[in-house]
């Protein structure tokens, strides 16, 4: 983290220093993570091939230019009325909304009105927003005074990216937040879940889902300060985000050679996913919160780890709320290090989902924590299990990723027949009579699987359960059950499988029982996943 901070400064100031060796991307890898160059960092046993779900853009370049001089504090418009006020969203009342309207009425009156507006709308630094608009409502919120001072970091990820890559991006952003906290009071606003490509269950409302439906918020808060988006709306004074930075690569691309971390304000390369409304506010997806508006949007070309952006946030903008869109463009500060694992360990699944998974294990898989030696400490900071301690339930855990993984006829994904053959041989080898299968296979495929492997056990939610836990919750229950199996095998380069590896690492399983994957029938060199050892 320290190293990262200093190299980030070098990039921002345009010194063009080469990043320290430990920050080189060869040390990290997860699908969706951009790795420099046409040459992907080669790894030993088990490369996790960098990719995104539905495409991956190259990242690249070298010219360094410092960002334009730091903007003046207090230039951002003050907050508007709180969201709870009726009509607040459509009728914002301070200069944040009035000024553009005034400007639209013609140049003649503009100067006069600007002067008036300046008097009515003093810079934020000079006059903080009214305390009443600052008070948080959630249990985790700070007292009004403290909340009034802190700054808000928000982020979003490329729409096609799936749930488990997004979990990885959270880790990257969390390390940026830790860097920011060394200088100022910041809080991370958790991006509501929704509109994910893989969440295809019909008739279920799956937008604006708070993190607490999937994760345990007090556990997240033991790592970094986080709040839900609704709390941001309540305590920051309304559905406005002062500054949106869209992260992108460098237009000129990446030239092979030295790796350098850099960040520059640049013209937007792709068409912006934000457009101005008649009041000059930026409208965009904003996690399905239609009333949310951005006051300013610009693009940053970035090549480097998450904390490279810290100096920009601390020095180049006075915006109180800053959103980083396309945050998957940031790399890990230090993949697999202590900081990485702390954040990963803090991502405890929501209790209600764990309870459902545990109940299923007990009922259908003869699996309990006492017998399996998988006791879970509700306080992750107190959980430190020696690898090899966990025994796991008497079943084989399988993650069989299908859908978009087979459409491209990938070489590293088996046919159903191939998968069942492997499952049978593993059951025999490990003397296991039961097999639990997590899969996203379509109905026709699961029917075929049942014929080929009649004894298989799946978590098949009722409609009520699906409505209650949603596709994301059902996937977590599947992952939780796989994480407790005596032996696990997953699918090549699936982030869904990777997150199961990590969960098992936390539970204290022998790595031999975890880092396994299916091979494609025609795959010549079937490398097995890397053991990423937990660091406390
Ligand atoms: N319930 C359930 N959903 C799955 C399973 N495998 C994949 N999915 C769904 O498909 C998505 C796959 O996207 P992602 O999380 O990015 O993982 P990846 O694409 O395998 O790297 C998951 O988030 C789930 O919504 C599974 O075994 N069980
Ligand atoms: Mg994916």
UniProtKB/TrEMBL annotation:
Keywords from the UniProt entry: Carbohydrate metabolism, Disulfide bond, Endoplasmic reticulum, Fucose metabolism, Glycoprotein, Glycosyltransferase, Golgi apparatus, Signal, Transferase
Molecular-function annotations in GO: peptide-O-fucosyltransferase activity
Pathway: Protein modification; protein glycosylation
GO cellular component, one term: Golgi apparatus
Subcellular location per the Swiss-Prot or TrEMBL entry: Endoplasmic reticulum; Golgi apparatus
Main location: endoplasmic reticulum
Enzyme class per UniProt: transferase
PROSITE patterns the record matches: PROKAR_LIPOPROTEIN
Keyword Signal found: yes
Membrane spanning residue stretches: none
Protein known as: GDP-fucose protein O-fucosyltransferase 2
Protein's gene: POFUT2
